[in-house]
Specification:
19 helices; 498 residues; single chain; D-Maltodextrin-Binding Protein, domain 2; alpha/beta; globular; 2 domains; five-stranded mixed beta sheet; four-stranded mixed beta sheet
């Protein structure tokens, strides 16, 4: 039943705030929120954790004499620059207002002036590749936000500053993503790009599993929420839900996404891309001393791909929508699909409909996997600092304070508002989905192999995409081996970073 009212919304906001500092904080200890087991990608414990809240550890009395902190970001509406800066405190959504309050607090506390310019993606490339090298301290940007794969190009071309040179930016803190930090740290120890709670889209561009609650209830199945909490949301359980609900739906048996009914619909760049992360692995194994592509024989990898594509193409219970996200979403909205995996910010669109839907993380492959891992769309903003910023001590100090505060207050104030705003308006009002958003954020994967890729279809991370576009005409090992060496030059470039 849909719940409304100020009291409920306040309770939900308070719960989201707890999640932001507990369950949804970037994991540091490796505890699985469902099972309590320890994993390899790091994490925090849940909201009942006895750990003390991390403080914002900055010296008292910092005063930057109204220095300007300049942001350069894409103007593309799909990757909102408002996540970083919102100019008008008298307008905008609740999330926009939270962003505005964040910048106002930073400006008033540390005597800085925050500004933002927006350009197209290619124009930002021009700035970084040409103009940033000639810019002086008086006209450089201090933070640049662009497509994640563009950012890796800037890093390889030695255009970005090492975040370790920012004196007041604590990359150990939970408001910086620890999986990104581990994956993106060069063998030299340098960190040339970063992400975390500076951006609420680090959550919004993550992939989750939307589902039609009415169909699940009519089939008499246990809610997927309970499966997640019990550590039972595995691929085999997901398969059972897909095939069971598909059998209960009255489609026209045409196999047409626009008219038929399915237990599961997905696109090239969603479920097939997440198969590897469902096994708890990354395409690249990154250690302090080396970077290497994982072998095709890595634990569960062959089985995971075989089982996924068997369900997708051989069960008659699923539909592949390719890049037609509108038709896939419509199938869910019209009650013709039980499950649809999509970036979670699409909840904002779904909640405008009459659909009674829920959200859970992507299923893990089996019970041996310690968490519910999911990738963050590489097209979302990743953050770099032009190299000149850290050549001057005063500029580096100012930039480090502003970045640390943006991430800290992002976690404490902006993210809870973002959760509340996208999850409580209209149909999506259940507390379970708020909890699941916490699990999703706790499970974000920032695989270097995904971010180092170039183009589409010719990278090892595109194995799932290629198999999906070919309708699994070739097996996993064949496709994987055809792609695994194509990114070697990029890996060598990354290994050569100073």
């Amino acid at each position: 039943m849909k719940q409304t009212g100020t009291a409920f919304r306040l309770a939900l906001l308070l719960l989201a705030a707890l999640l932001a500092v507990g369950l949804v904080a970037c994991r540091k200890t490796g505890d699985d929120p469902a099972t309590g087991s320890t994993g390899s990608t790091g994490g925090t414990s849940g909201p009942d954790s006895t750990e003390e809240e991390e403080p914002l550890d900055l010296p008292e009395g910092l005063d930057f004499d109204y220095a300007e902190f300049r942001i350069l970001a894409r103007g593309d509406a799909d990757y909102y620059n408002e996540e970083l800066y919102f100019a008008d405190g008298a307008s905008g959504s609740a999330v926009d207002q939270a962003v505005f309050r964040r910048q106002a607090r930073i400006e008033e506390t540390y005597f800085v002036e925050m500004t933002m310019s927006t350009l197209g993606e290619a124009e930002i490339d021009t700035y970084m590749n040409v103009n940033s090298l000639a810019a002086g301290l008086e006209d450089t940007y201090h933070l640049v936000a662009n497509h994640g794969r563009n950012s890796t190009n800037y890093v390889i071309n030695a255009l970005t500053a090492d975040w370790n040179l920012l004196p007041y930016t604590n990359l150990d803190a939970s408001w910086w993503n620890q999986d990104a930090r581990q994956q993106w740290t060069a063998v030299s120890g340098s960190i040339y790009m970063m992400t975390g709670d500076i951006s609420y889209l680090s959550v919004g561009q993550a992939v989750g599993m939307f589902f039609n609650k009415t169909i699940i209830n009519n089939a008499g199945l246990v809610t997927p929420y309970e499966r997640v909490r019990n550590g039972e949301w595995t691929f085999e359980v997901f398969r059972e839900y897909v095939t069971t609900t598909d059998a209960n739906l009255n489609g026209d048996n045409s196999g047409n996404l626009a008219t038929d009914s399915f237990g599961y619909v997905t696109g090239w760049w969603r479920g097939p891309m997440n198969i590897i992360y469902s096994t708890g692995q990354h395409w690249l194994e990154v250690t302090e001393d080396s970077i290497s592509v994982i072998p095709s024989t890595a634990n569960n990898l062959v089985n995971a791909f075989d089982d996924y594509f068997d369900l997708l193409f051989d069960s008659n219970a699923c539909a592949m929508g390719g890049g037609d996200y509108t038709s896939m979403s419509k199938a869910l909205e019209e009650g013709r699909a039980t499950f649809y995996d999509e970036i979670v910010l699409r909840a904002e669109t779904l909640k405008q409909t009459e659909l009674d839907f829920g959200l859970v993380p992507m299923p893990k492959y089996d019970s041996t996997v310690d968490g519910y891992y999911t990738f963050v769309n590489a097209a979302t903003n990743t953050f770099v600092i032009p190299r000149i910023v850290t050549t001057d001590a005063a500029t580096a100090e100012m930039a480090s304070v502003v970045l640390e505060c943006m991430a800290y207050y992002g976690q404490k104030e902006v993210l809870p508002t973002y959760y509340e705003d996208i999850l409580t308006y209209n149909s999506m009002t259940d507390m379970d989905s708020v909890e699941m958003m916490g699990v999703i954020r706790d499970s974000l994967s920032y695989d270097l192999g995904y971010y180092l890729a170039e183009g589409a279809g010719g990278n090892v991370c595109d194995t799932g995409y290629v198999m999906a576009s070919e309708r699994a005409a070739r097996g996993f090992v064949t496709v994987y081996e055809s792609l695994r060496n194509l990114g070697d030059a990029r890996i060598e470039d990354w290994l050569d970073l100073a």
